[in-house]
Design a protein that fits this description.
CATH topology of the largest domain: D-Amino Acid Oxidase, Chain A, domain 2
Number of helices: 11
CATH class of the largest domain: Alpha Beta
Helix content: 25-40%
Number of strands: 20
Radius of gyration: 22 Å
Distance between the termini: 18 Å
CATH superfamily of the largest domain: D-Amino Acid Oxidase, subunit A, domain 2
Shape: globular
Number of domains: 2
Largest sheet: 9 strands, mixed
Length: 425
């Protein structure tokens, strides 16, 4: 790709990725330095189309995460901040609360460990409750004991992301969609970012600082500037079923199982969405392409990339029994229903009337270790957000501050550069 005067633009900061973390980060830069020349590149024609637009819509409270981790600190603070942001912007949200239900004494022991973690993280209002109180909160649920988190909430994260984008635009950002980044090349004082538009035209911008927040493709972008990077993204698809509208009163807020300590996902649960619908899910099975939202969506190069990565097979050997159970429930609706009936016996197969899926970008190391916490990797002029799983949406304002704080601490943040910018249409 050869840049020229018509096809090249110069910026102080470029953010690659128009999901909720990328948009929050752009917003934070412009909040701190009004007048900063900032570009956002997003490969889809609309913003927030993948993990941001395919999640369960939960405002998490911070119960699950290891005390002291970035996740724990960011989630507790982020929940309070996102509520205030929604109030300020007039975005509809609801603190409908969440039950984490133990069905028997064996699960109570794990529940107590989770409660201790919630207390250590400073989760507001969290309580241990008995069977009678469970029935008061969620009459359709059976359970022995539960954690009640009244400050867990719901929101449309796509709407929040669009509000971040509006803030960035109001701050002077230039957002280009339909721009798939294919190269990043560092020179002495800037990075050249090559991208391809939907019509196949090649374009380039130059930036003194680049932040990538590419979700399912974060490792691909990292390898453009860090050839030695061995962390890989493994995509896990999660299927959701909508509960029939006439049965939606079966769940007033959120109903979760006690997490299985042998598997790093939360398990199938019931969640009321901000539009009033109730959804069950997700499970967690290997996706055959990074943006594969249907069971048989396959892109052979991406599948081979997963299957030839040593860390995947080490992970598969470690969790093969749980993985088989997840696949069984994914392909047999009756098994999915039976899992829900453990908590809500009233649910029947015919009550699950629609289906959708999301794909989680899970960072994995060569030794099979799943990266549990947020991972932000710094280079000389490029910062890669390599792992930002749930609760990234809840924590997005805090993560953005973390990113920009770390850039400032490393002396990387560029001062405002007054240039005439010729950005391609």
């Amino acid at each position: 790709m050869t840049p020229d005067g018509n096809h090249t633009s110069v910026f102080d900061v470029a953010v690659v990725g128009g999901g909720i973390v990328g948009l929050a980060t752009a917003r934070e830069f412009l909040k701190r330095q009004p007048g900063l020349r900032l570009a956002i590149l997003e490969k889809e024609t609309l913003l927030a189309q993948h993990q941001t637009g395919h999640n369960s819509g939960v405002i998490h409270a911070g119960i699950y995460y290891a005390p002291g981790s970035l996740k724990a600190r960011a989630c507790v603070t982020g929940r309070a901040e996102i509520v205030e942001y929604c109030k300020e912007k007039g975005i509809r949200y609801e603190l409908c609360g969440k039950l984490i239900v133990a069905l028997n004494e064996a699960e109570v022991e794990r529940l107590m460990s989770l409660y201790a973690r919630a207390q250590a993280n400073g989760v507001p209002g969290v309580q241990l409750i008995n069977r009678d109180r469970i029935q008061e909160i969620e009459p359709a649920v059976i359970g022995h004991k539960a954690i009640w988190s009244p400050n867990t909430g719901i929101v449309d994260w796509g709407e929040v992301a669009r509000a971040y984008a509006a803030d960035a635009l109001n701050g002077g950002a230039v957002i280009t969609t339909g721009a798939r980044v294919v190269s990043m090349v560092n020179s002495e004082d800037e990075t050249r970012i090559g991208y391809v538009q939907e019509d196949g035209r090649e374009r380039e911008i130059r930036a003194r600082l680049v932040v990538t927040c590419a979700g399912l493709y974060s490792d691909h972008l990292a390898r453009m500037t860090e050839s030695e990077s061995t962390t890989r993204i493994i995509p896990f698809r999660g299927s959701y079923y909508q509960i029939a509208p006439q049965k939606s009163d079966i769940c007033r807020g959120m109903i979760y199982p006690v997490p299985d300590p042998t598997f790093p996902f939360l398990g199938i649960h019931l969640t009321r969405h901000i539009d009033g619908t109730v959804w069950a899910g997700p499970n967690a099975v290997l996706a055959f392409r990074r943006e594969g939202y249907r069971r048989w969506d396959i892109f052979l190069p991406e599948l081979l990339e997963t299957l030839t990565y040593p860390g995947f097979w080490k992970l598969a050997i470690r969790y093969w029994k749980t993985g088989i159970k997840e696949m069984y429930r994914d392909y047999l609706k009756g098994a999915y229903v039976n899992e829900l009936r453990r908590y809500t016996p009233e649910i029947k197969g015919e009550d699950l009337v629609a289906e959708k899926s999301g794909v989680r970008a899970q960072a994995l190391e060569r030794d099979g270790t799943m990266v549990d916490d947020f991972m932000i990797r710094h280079g000389s002029r490029v910062v890669h957000v390599l792992n930002a799983p749930s609760p990234a949406a809840t924590s997005s304002l805090v993560i953005a501050r973390m990113i920009v704080d770390s850039i400032e601490q490393n002396g990387l943040i560029p001062q405002v550069r007054r240039l005439s910018v010729n950005f391609p249409n």
